[in-house]
Amino acid sequence: MPSNPADKAGFRGKSPVKRGETMKQKIKKAAVLGAGVMGSAIAAHLANVGIPSFLLDIVPPELSEAEKKKGLTFQSPEVRNRFAVQGKNRIQETRPASLYLKDDAELLTVGNFEDHLSWVSEADWIIEVVIEDLNLKRDLFKKLILLKRRNGGQLEYLWHLHSEDGRRVFTGLCRNVFRDPLL
After folding, report:
1. According to the model, what pLDDT value does residue 151 have?
2. What is the pLDDT of residue 139?
3. What gap in Å lies between CA 132 and CA 153, rounded to an integer?
4. DSSP conformation letters of the chain
5. Which among 36, 39, 71, 155 could bridge 148 via Cys, Cβ 3.0 to 4.6 Å?
6. What local confidence, expressed as pLDDT, does residue 178 receive?
């Protein structure tokens, strides 16, 4: 009786797919939507394998005390990108290290949904990991659908993941892809 699951399937130590033939499309650039613990860790993994990525998050709802003391305003990129910058800083400071090489942090470009969402059209892979707030997710996907329309359909696969009637919502990596009562 074989103890290895692959042997049980009849592979007997040989993979049915040759190494390197499993993925036909190469990922040259990615976008991670959400710079919290999970989003920043995913961005770190992408950087570790050499994939340049955009790390985007919401614009903070208010200025922090430190930002007020510096005299910054909501128009300041330091304020508007605060959550994404914090996510990038988090992966550079964690122990054990999230990044294999500290220089890999340079592969991450930080921004926010309001000013930089158009960058998503440059990405081959989009990973959404925003907080579990259905209204926030719907608003984000409405913006992505408008972006898709402006860019002539480059985000067509997102269109299929979220219908305009709001019944189908993509909820991110490592979670249920669809929350649809019809599925």
Report:
1. 59
2. 84
3. 27
4. ---SHHHHTT-TT--SS-TT-S--S----EEEE--SHHHHHHHHHHHHTT--EEEEEPPPSS--HHHHHHT--TTSHHHHTHHHHHHHHHHHH-SS-SSSSGGGGGGEEEEEHHHHGGGGGG-SEEEE---S-HHHHHHHHHHHHHHHHHTTSTTHHHHHHS-TTS---B--TTS-SB--TT-
5. 155
6. 32
24: Cβ–Cβ under 8 A, 6 or more apart, which residues? none
Per run of 10 residues, the mean pLDDT along the chain (length 183 residues) is 50 52 72 94 95 96 95 95 97 92 96 93 86 81 71 47 46 32 32
User: Any residues with CB less than 8 A from the CB of 145 and at least 6 apart, and which?
Assistant: 155, 158, 159, 162, 164
Strand partners, 128: 33
Query: 57: Cβ–Cβ under 8 A, 6 or more apart, which residues?
Result: 33, 34, 35, 36, 39, 81, 83, 84, 87, 112, 113, 130
Total-model pTM: 0.71
* pLDDT at 49 (0 to 100): 93
